[in-house]
User: Which sequence fits this backbone?
């Protein structure tokens, strides 16, 4: 294959070892590439370019036209493998198949439909948060996973018993990392990369077995009349009409699990962490919620008056969002910003680095919700849910869910990060804390103070100076 032919020459990477870190820490690896090369660089492997891009100029071309750039979700797996079945999900299919699935799910996920679910969402969140007590130390990561599972499992999957879903969750983080590592082991021009493909196949089988258990429970308990918001019931109804097979159902359920639970739990964790560590922002949030949505019975209209809350969530998704990058493959010779790339080019856009781009966001490592009072960035500068024709359909659900949970917790409690905690990241396709994130629970008294913390989180956000009272807590 000929090298990239353009009117201006795309920069070529000459330090492939720089890419090695991507395997174990995608945020650190992509950031190292960006520091070394800027917003665009091409590496080559076997005559095929792998292009790393940051910023709206390049994201627009690769995300706007889903026929020119197909999604590349991971290693396809061998025929008949569980990994191959997962590529039948929303994150693996392209073209008309993807369009058909979007049309199937869209009625339940459009904004108007999601708004009608507000009271149910509020009630299910309360079922979890009502178990919190003052003076407890809780793991915020574990609690947000539990909360996301309780709400999405019941509302979007129609599950009354979450046991099988929790079995899936137990393997999911591990699978996401293995899938990421296997993909990059196959495309990076780096010698002697460990390839966890056999381990990925084993992890995929474990998850498929748990998904089969979940489907059995769902079919056993399914009532005659299904809720229009039950995505799993919708999927099974399509199967019953003979339009899709069991492997397609498993693949779709796998994708839905990722989108509905996994990323949402990380988004909530990081948002609550940032609120706890920024006292001035937190106190404004408390005042706004107590004024506009003062009780757990407050309406959605009341909650939507909380403009600072909305800005806090938007800024959290920019600063430490749950997704690190998106990958695409050119189906033909195609434009990419001011360049032209040949068919087969793999393009990787870093959402994380795009969100930390000083050209678009002043002081990008600063948590500043007020930036959203005046700025309206180019859609391809702000990508927490992607953009274009593959933009996440679940965005209205996720945003409303985050509003409900953040308002409920802020109304009842003040969270303090346990002083001295080391917070490292687990970054592959997704970005979450590498371990527990202990928080101290207090009644809501507005007495927020920044805690001294350590670890990689300090590479991602500039925190206020820790208050001595917090260190002594």
Assistant:
């Amino acid at each position: 294959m000929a090298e990239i032919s353009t009117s201006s020459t795309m920069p070529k990477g000459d330090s492939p070892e720089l890419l090695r870190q991507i395997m174990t820490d995608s945020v650190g690896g992509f950031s190292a590439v960006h520091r070394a090369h800027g917003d665009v660089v091409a590496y080559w492997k076997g005559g095929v370019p792998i292009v790393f891009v940051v910023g709206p100029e390049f994201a627009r071309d690769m995300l706007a036209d889903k026929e020119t750039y197909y999604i590349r979700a991971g290693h396809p797996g061998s025929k008949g493998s569980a990994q191959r079945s997962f590529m039948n999900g929303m994150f693996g299919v392209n073209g008309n198949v993807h369009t058909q699935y979007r049309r199937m799910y869209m009625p339940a996920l459009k904004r108007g439909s999601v708004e009608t679910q507000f009271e149910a969402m509020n009630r299910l969140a309360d079922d979890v948060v009502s178990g919190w007590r003052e003076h407890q130390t809780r793991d915020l990561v574990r609690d947000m996973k539990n909360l996301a599972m309780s709400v999405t499992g019941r509302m979007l999957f129609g599950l009354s018993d979450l046991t099988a879903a929790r079995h899936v969750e137990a393997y999911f983080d591990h699978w996401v990392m293995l899938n990421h590592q296997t993909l990059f082991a196959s495309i990076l021009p780096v010698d002697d990369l460990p390839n966890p493909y056999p381990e990925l196949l084993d992890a995929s089988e474990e998850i498929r077995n748990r998904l089969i258990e979940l489907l059995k429970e769902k079919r056993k308990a399914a009532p005659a009349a299904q809720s229009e918001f039950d995505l799993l019931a919708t999927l099974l109804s399509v199967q019953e009409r003979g339009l899709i097979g069991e492997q397609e159902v498993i693949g779709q359920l796998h994708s839905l699990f990722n989108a509905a639970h996994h990323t949402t739990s990380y988004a909530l964790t990081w948002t609550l962490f940032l609120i706890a560590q920024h006292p001035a922002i937190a106190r404004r949030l408390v005042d706004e919620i107590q004024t506009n949505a003062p009780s757990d019975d407050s309406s959605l209209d009341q909650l939507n008056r909380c403009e600072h809350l909305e800005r806090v969530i938007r800024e959290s998704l920019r600063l430490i969002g749950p997704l690190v990058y998106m990958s695409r493959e050119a189906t033909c010779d195609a434009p990419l910003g001011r360049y032209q790339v040949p068919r087969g080019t793999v393009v990787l856009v870093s959402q994380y680095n795009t969100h930390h781009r000083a050209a678009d966001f002043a002081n990008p490592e600063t948590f500043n919700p007020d930036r959203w009072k005046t700025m309206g960035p180019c859609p391809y500068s702000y990508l927490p849910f992607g953009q274009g024709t593959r933009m996440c359909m679940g965005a209205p659900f996720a945003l409303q869910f985050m509003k409900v949970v953040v308002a409920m917790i802020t109304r009842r409690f003040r969270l303090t990060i346990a002083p001295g905690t080391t917070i490292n990241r687990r970054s592959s396709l997704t970005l979450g804390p590498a371990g527990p994130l202990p928080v101290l629970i207090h009644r809501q008294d507005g007495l927020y103070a920044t805690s001294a913390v350590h670890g990689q989180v300090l590479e991602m956000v500039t925190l206020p100076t820790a208050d001595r009272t917090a260190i002594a807590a």
Notes: The longest strand covers residues 40-45. The two ends are 62 Å apart (CA to CA). The chain has one domain: 16-471.
